[in-house]
Each structure stands twice: as structure tokens, then as C-alpha cells.
Amino acid sequence: MPFDIKKTVRPNILTLEPYRCARDDFKTGILLDANENTHGPALTELSKSEQVLELNRYPDPHQAELKQQIINFRNKKPNKFVKDIEANKLKIGNLCLGVGSDESIDMLLRCVCQPGKDKMLICPPTYGMYSICATVNDVEIVKLPLTTPGFQIDIEGIASKVTGDPNIKLVYLTSPGNPTGKLLAVADVIQLLEKVAPVWNGFVIVDEAYIDFTISPDSNYSESMSTLVNEHENLVVLQTLSKSFGLAGIRLGVTFCSEKLSYYLNSMKYPYNISSLTSDVAIRATGEETGLATMSKYVANIIEQRDQLLKNLLALDGVGNNIGGLDSNFLLVEIVDKDGKPSNEVAQALYNTLAVDNQVVVRFRGKELNCTGALRVSVGTEEENKILIEKFVKCLAEVRK
Ligand SMILES: Cc1ncc(COP(=O)(O)O)c(C=O)c1O
């Protein structure tokens, strides 16, 4: 039973065809086909760029220009595990865009999992939205923890779970992980894909929200697995403009997958999910001249700041080990009690005091599996990090009295 997409996608989704509008065929002239307001947006003032965007019109449902820029960017640095780079280059047909990767996560669940019947596997500690989306869709969650130390996948464990239960249809992996900050070994994920493909009709999804923080500017290869989707039909990769591109506010997520799966995802998405404002900014951000260099510059800066911040945090009395990896734009550090033991009580008190009395907000993650006493700290600007350290010193002394 080799992997068969028709046995993986829900039968009702297999019957869908993409929504079509008159504008797919005719784009110019007097446009009276979509019941838009031809008199214009209800705003007393419009900036020049807003005028150009014609906000009274529906946005482009296909977003070909944006998709082309995204694949140009990823194709430039294929993953080193791609066997045939030329034949397997990403094409526009490999992409589906979503309202942040949160929409992409939900869309995959709705595409594949039958409510009340199918299941999805996650590897804690991991991103919380997978469980929320699964619960909303009435999809049972099966858990198989990341191995420790190192927060990597248990290849044999996952393979045995999914092959033992055909109702498990999706495996959600996060690389680099949240809250782990640790890149998964690409060789491990490929081993898993190859091991399960002949015997399991399901998808392995690799959420790469933080992938650009692992990219070394002087290498020809990227750690991103996005360029592997044409070699592994059971692989799906998610990315977002919310992190490295600094555009959490525009809500743009990207699903990379086989052209076959992408056809179904694009058929089920709401046709106008990407707004004209979002696509305008996203096109500028992913453009060679207009955004990519700035993204790389900020990423390099964040990495430099992250390393300095870690050094400063680890030097503090009350901060134990860095239990996460260094593949992301945040740190996961243990807060310890007076005996040097990781403590949720102290970490939670520190978290509260920092936020309530000192206006510094980090994230308590101590309740996540194998994260006892952990605080997750996003890397700030140089100035913010300086204040964070000062406040940490003051608050740690207070809560560890
Ligand atoms: C692993 C992971 N995936 C996805 C997201 C959500 O991304 P978006 O803003 O594109 O919805 C986050 C946000 O924190 C995340 O940590």
C-alpha cells in the first residue's frame, strides 16, 4: 500500500474544484461582475498606495506574483538532501497561502481529518495551536514526546504509532521547535518520511515558522525542508512571514506541498483570504530589492543579540541552564530555586513580577513537558534586552528571598 493521496484527503474534499470568478477570465474593462462598490472605499482620505490598491475591489484569489517570489527565494538555497535539484524545484503549484500559518494548520486538518474519526499526532513540548485546531475540528490528539535531551523526534516511536493506527492522518512536527528553539535533524525527518510512505496514508507536516533564524548567509544550502516537497509526496512544510520577516500584523502563512495536495487546499480555501493590503506588503517583503536584504540584516542582528542575551542571562544567580536550542529568535531558560533546582513556583513568580510591576512580559512555559521552571524569552532590541537583564536581576532577588 504505497502512499496514495486519494486515500488520505477526505472524500468530500476530493470532489471540490477551485472557486472560479468572472475575473479569472476577464481582468480589465468596466468591471460590474462582482457586486463591488464601484464608488470606492468609505474613507475620507486614502494614501497614494491605498489608491493604487483599489481597495473597493476583491483581491486576487491566486496571488501568482507573491507565490513566484516566495519560490524564487526558497529555490535559491535548496535543502542539501534534495536529490535532483533541477527536476524538483518548487513551482507556483506547490503553494497555498493562508491567513497566517494558523489558517494553514487548520486547513490541513479540515482537508485530511474526518471529525469524530481521524486523529493527529503531535510531539510535545510543542506549539499550542495544533491541539486547539484539532479540538475545534473534533480530531483526537495522540502524543509522542520529543526525545530528551536535545528535543528530537523519536523516529521508531512515531512510525510505530501511525502504522499501528490508520486513523492517525497527520503528524505535526515543528522545526525549529516552539518552545524548544531546536532544529530537528533533517535526516531524521526524511528517514521518517521514507519509512512510513510505503505503509501509511498520512502527511508529515513540518512547521518552519522560525526556519530563517537557522540560515547561514555564507552557505549554498538552507535547512528549510520546503524544497523537498516534490521528492516526498507525504511531506508538507509550513512557513510564515510573522517571524523572520517581522510581519505578524499582516497575517501571511505559506503551505508548501505536492501539487496534488495543493490543488485540494486551494480548492477549499476561501477565495479572497489574502487581502490586497497583505499581499502588497508581502510582495515587497519577499522581493529581492525591496525586502530580502532587510530581512537577512535583521535576522543576523537578532542572532547576535540572542547570543549576547543568553550569555547575560546564564550569568545571573537564579537562572539555570538554557534548555532550548539556538535555532530561533527566542530562548528557553530554566529558573532555579535556592537549591539550584528548576522551579515552576519561582519561574511563575518571576514571570508575574516582571509583567505586573516592571512591564516586561515573557512567557511561562514550565507546565510544558520536560520544561520545568522554564521561561521563554523572545530576543528584543539591544535596549530592550538591557532592560530585561536589569529587571531580571531585581525580580530574581525578590522572588528567591
Ligand atoms: C511554531 C509556530 N507555528 C506557527 C505560528 C503562528 O504563525 P502565524 O503568525 O503565521 O499564524 C507560531 C507563532 O508563534 C509558531 O510558534
In short:
By secondary structure, the protein is an alpha/beta fold.
Key terms for this structure?
Aspartate Aminotransferase, domain 2, 3 domains, globular, four-stranded antiparallel β-sheet, 12 helices, single chain, histidinol-phosphate transaminase, 13% strand, Aspartate Aminotransferase, domain 1, binds pyridoxal-5'-phosphate, EC 2.6.1.9, histidine biosynthesis, 401 residues, alpha/beta, transferase, seven-stranded mixed β-sheet
Under the CATH scheme, which architecture of the largest domain would be assigned? Answer: 3-Layer(aba) Sandwich
| Structural class determined from secondary elements | alpha/beta
CATH class designation of the largest domain: Alpha Beta
**Annotated CATH topology of the largest domain:** Aspartate Aminotransferase, domain 2
Written as H for each helix and E for each strand, in order along the chain, the element string is: HHHEHEHEHEHEEEHHHEEHEEH
Distinct small-molecule ligands in the complex: pyridoxal-5'-phosphate
Q: What is the count of helical runs?
A: 12
Strand segment count: 11
The description of the largest β-sheet is: 7 strands, mixed
The share of residues in helices is 25-40%
What fraction strand? 5-15%
Report the oligomer: single chain
How many structural domains are formed by the residues? Answer: 3
Low-confidence stretches: none
Q: What is the H level of CATH, i.e. the homologous superfamily of the largest domain?
A: Type I PLP-dependent aspartate aminotransferase-like (Major domain)
Distance between the termini: 62 Å
Average pLDDT confidence is 95
- The gyration radius over C-alpha positions equals 23 Å
Task: State the shape.
Answer: globular
**Strand order in the largest sheet:** 1-7-6-5-4-2-3
Pfam families: Aminotran_1_2
Catalytic activity: L-histidinol phosphate + 2-oxoglutarate = 3-(imidazol-4-yl)-2-oxopropyl phosphate + L-glutamate
Keywords: Amino-acid biosynthesis, Aminotransferase, Histidine biosynthesis, Pyridoxal phosphate, Transferase
Organism: Scheffersomyces stipitis (strain ATCC 58785 / CBS 6054 / NBRC 10063 / NRRL Y-11545)
